[in-house]
Design brief:
The protein contains three helices and no strands. Helix 2 runs antiparallel to helix 3. It is elongated.
């Protein structure tokens, strides 16, 4: 369980240390996520869905700063 993980307790005590990727990488992930999501919406079909999924994961990574 995550609640008993020593790492999660440490992160809860030090919320400013939860980000584990640098800011330039967050910006790159966010930009790539926006592009991939847009391309996926434009294309549609199974390939578009894959692009939307990967783009969404990149957007989440860039938004949270946590890999």
């Amino acid at each position: 369980m995550v609640a008993f993980d020593p790492q999660s307790r440490r992160a809860a005590r030090h919320p400013h240390q939860q980000q584990n990727i640098p800011n330039w990488e967050r910006a790159l992930s966010t930009g790539a996520g926006i592009i991939l999501t847009g391309l996926g919406l434009h294309r549609g079909g199974p390939v578009g869905l894959v692009r939307i999924a990967v783009g969404s994961l990149l957007l989440a990574r860039g938004g949270t700063g946590h890999c």
